[in-house]
């Protein structure tokens, strides 16, 4: 665990520049017994009190629409990463200048070299391998799963909420719940029996694929309702479908034994976790880093946390930092130390959650497909990536 003074030094610039960040740090220290993970500390609000008061007042008005100034000052991502690809429509990636898709026009993404969109020409995004845009050909962006561009189809990237890929359906990349099995990381789910000291296993990709977005302060976040109409009105540059797909997770019925919400601020996340666990003091659990992702590593030490309930929070795809949090019964949580198999050199400490009861899961759940069993026929474990958080009762447990 980092020394408190070390953490203070890391966060000191935020304390100077943002009273809102200072408030968030104070709220954390009052409710959480251990230090704030670095991935969370980088998402603290950059707004000062004057800005926060102003936007809290204006965002409550019916005619409020997020503009570039608000998005820049609050460090939000107010433009959908990929808009529907239709004749004359606009394509937006990571908030570049959007350009109509018309014959001979140019598409510019993240300042690569722009190229006219003409028959047989190439489109270059973030310097991936370029491919001619011809009927039935494939487009490659940021090395996601490649799929033919067909009439009426949609391409969406960077971890929107996903569902199975079926004929005529939508294509979703980067940590989807369900895409063709051949394109899923086969090491993203595993059985509990694998977690044994001395075992070697491939670590799945722990890197976050979502664009950076800061938390909103509670006084602003409370003015935003998590319904498609409200978000589409306040953030008009996000597509309706992108919003609805993401919110389908938040608004879906809870599974057996699940208690869930989508907190819109760090404070709301902590308050929900306290309520769900029935405790006043929490411990936060997070993977140390992304080191070792995709590599074959050896398990050196395993720590099991002896708790009855867990709250797991996974970041969602909205203009501001938002998490999907759910309390998990019939689950176990572990901290696993990985080392290099040949040298024994430490690599990473990663948090794993194992769901022991899968009886209420869909038979099409990607975990069950990878592990090759049906609902209720076994447990499913997965790693927490760099921006995921788990919460447990802080009483009697030590990191």
From TrEMBL:
<protein>
    <recommendedName>
        <fullName>BURP domain-containing protein</fullName>
    </recommendedName>
</protein>
<dbReference type="InterPro" id="IPR004873">
    <property type="entry name" value="BURP_dom"/>
</dbReference>
<feature type="domain" description="BURP">
    <location>
        <begin position="189"/>
        <end position="394"/>
    </location>
</feature>
<keyword id="KW-0052">Apoplast</keyword>
<feature type="signal peptide">
    <location>
        <begin position="1"/>
        <end position="21"/>
    </location>
</feature>
<keyword id="KW-0732">Signal</keyword>
<dbReference type="GO" id="GO:0048046">
    <property type="term" value="C:apoplast"/>
</dbReference>
<dbReference type="Pfam" id="PF03181">
    <property type="entry name" value="BURP"/>
</dbReference>
<keyword id="KW-0134">Cell wall</keyword>
<keyword id="KW-0325">Glycoprotein</keyword>
<keyword id="KW-0964">Secreted</keyword>
<dbReference type="InterPro" id="IPR051897">
    <property type="entry name" value="PG-associated_BURP"/>
</dbReference>
